[in-house]
Specification:
251 residues, alpha+beta, Aminopeptidase, 7-stranded mixed beta sheet, 3-stranded antiparallel beta sheet, 7 helices, 30% strand
């Protein structure tokens, strides 16, 4: 596992790449809230210092109240930056652990993009949102919230779509923040899988980021996604660290 400094860097670029509408700090706990989108990364309490263990019960309740005000169940996102004492407290209070996720990194300078298509990213956010919702088979009710999220990204972003017969079959979002490039929203339509679309769109996104000066690529993938992990490992990605969520037992 990388040192805490590298983890903090990845977490920071991750927050900028996937920006919450509201961020409130309680000490070093970042409480991220986004009423218009259900993403856990946008709606979670993120402890950012293993040494910040003061008044844990009081602060947990205070953060939970913010979630209740939004009509959401309180959720902690527990990375290696979270104090073990906090995790122990949440476990003892019945907060369930779920969705363990692997953060992977790769050296972009070591990748060979020979033969990779120079795909031009979309500039039309609405077109990308529509393509993403179709490929992921998500409800169109998420369209306004996802559009707002994309509009809020301040670093350079590349929105990639592969189409067949006028239909989107694969999507990827790449956010380049200085020397770091993050991959998000990667998916291929169910009936179009195993045709190389995922590999092609990831390669195009990484090539774009590399050409714009990124040196390190990173992404997040749930541990259960074995096929996705195999794809990324073939590009040279390796596990950097893991995080998981803890959700309040309240109904």
């Amino acid at each position: 596992m990388p040192g805490l400094a590298m983890i903090r860097q990845i977490e920071a670029v991750g927050f900028r790449a996937w920006p919450a509408t509201s961020v409130h700090y309680d000490g070093t706990w970042a409480i991220r809230m986004t009423a218009a989108h259900p993403s856990k990364r946008l709606n979670s309490i993120n402890p950012l210092d293993p040494a910040d263990i003061r008044d844990i019960p009081v602060r947990v309740e205070r953060a939970a109240q913010r979630f209740r005000a939004y009509g959401r169940r309180p959720v902690f996102r527990q990375s290696p930056l979270a104090p073990p004492e906090l995790d122990d407290y949440l476990a003892a209070e019945g907060w369930g652990r779920f969705d363990e996720t692997i953060v992977m990194t790769a050296d972009l300078t070591a990748m060979d993009f020979t033969g990779t298509i120079d795909q031009i990213p979309l500039r039309d956010i609405g077109r990308f949102v529509d393509a993403s919702l179709k490929v992921h088979e998500r409800d169109t009710v998420l369209r306004p919230g996802f559009s707002e999220l994309l509009n809020g990204i301040r670093p350079a972003k590349g929105m990639f779509v592969i189409e067949e017969a006028g239909r989107p079959v694969s999507v990827a979002l790449c956010v380049q923040d200085g020397a770091m490039a993050g991959l998000f929203d990667i998916a291929t339509a169910q009936k179009n899988r195993r045709h190389g679309h995922g590999r092609a769109i990831v390669a195009s996104a990484l090539k774009w980021a590399s050409k714009h000066g990124a040196k390190t690529a990173w992404l997040q993938i749930e541990t259960a996604n074995a096929a996705g992990r195999a794809l990324y490992e073939s590009f040279g990605f390796a596990e950097a660290y893991r995080y998981a969520y803890r959700e309040s037992p309240e109904s």
